[in-house]
Amino acid sequence: MNDSLKEKLIELLKEQKEIFGDDLFEELIQRKTKVITKDDEEVSITKKNPSIMNKSTPLNKKVYDKQFAFGECEDPANQAIESWESSESLEELHKKIGSCTKCVLHEGRNKFVFGVGNANADVMCIGEGPGAEEDKQGYPFVGRAGKLLTDILKAIKFSRDDVFIGNVVKCRPPGNRTPLPSEMDTCLPYLLKQIDLIKPKLILCLGLTAAQGLLNKKDSLTSMRGKIFEFRGAKAMVTYHPAALLRNPQWKKGCWEDVQKFRKLYDELN
Ligand code: SF4
């Protein structure tokens, strides 16, 4: 089987997984991924349970879009005590984790994608992980899927600067494969710390992987859509990933219904 056929097969499986979220697809995608990346050795990573972080001092309203050059950041893997856990600002956290080498994804990383947006946002949008363009630019949701996310937000009267946008993993999985559960487990504490610093009222999970990874659920996207989950002091909802909408425009109607409910919930909370 040639590489482009394999990639198409993975995309098809991802679309099916987007709908059904079943373990069979998870396993198949990961198995196929190994073929593409020649990464047959299972990652030997320290599996770390997300820890409960201390609540930090509230931040002033400001847009966070800083990037650090490699070398300006500490390597969390080399820190005897994980000092990033006590970070009191997004900037401090970014500096402390921006050279992370805790999982295999750092090996193919061009840029670490910390997240971007309002440091004191009421709304966070969480995706799966950086793609090729995100890895190149160091920002989440750029390119076609990013533009669609901007349009979706605009349709429910948010600008990108109103919200904070991040991902479950901060380094690009090779070949745009789905992050492995072990990679998500390793990276998730950073996102939890971001949530604790930002203290959003609402979280919108974009796609099945982000929803399952963040909310620690095994349910399908269909069964999670439309529901409201309590998560770390915020209310979380789930909809399609914009990249899945680009491949399946017939899902846009469902996404529109989801984000309308999300906006209604936001209005009720404010
Ligand atoms: S994906 Fe997360 S845990 Fe893995 S190397 Fe990147 S920052 Fe570290």
Number of strands: 7
Overall tally of structural domains: 1
Largest sheet: 7 strands, mixed
Mean residue pLDDT = 83
CATH homology group: Uracil-DNA glycosylase-like domain
Which residues form runs of ≥5 with pLDDT under 50? 19-60
Q: What structural category do the secondary elements indicate? A: alpha/beta
Q: Give the second-level CATH assignment, the architecture.
A: 3-Layer(aba) Sandwich
C-alpha-based Rg, rounded:
18 Å
Shape descriptor: globular
Bound molecules: iron/sulfur cluster
Strand order of the largest sheet: 1-2-4-3-5-7-6
Helix content: 40-55%
CATH class: Alpha Beta
Provide an overview of this structure.
It is a single chain. By secondary structure, the chain is an alpha/beta fold. The protein has one domain: 3-Layer(aba) Sandwich (Uracil-DNA Glycosylase, subunit E), CATH 3.40.470. Helices cover 42% and strands 10% of the residues. The protein has a 7-stranded mixed beta sheet with strand order 1-2-4-3-5-7-6, with helices on both faces. Strand 6 (229-231) and strand 7 (234-239) form a beta hairpin. Helix 1 packs antiparallel against helix 2 (23-37). The protein is globular, with a radius of gyration of 18 Å. The N and C termini lie far apart (54 Å). The structure holds iron/sulfur cluster. Iron/sulfur cluster (SF4) binds at residues 100-103, 105-106, 169-171, 183, 186-187.
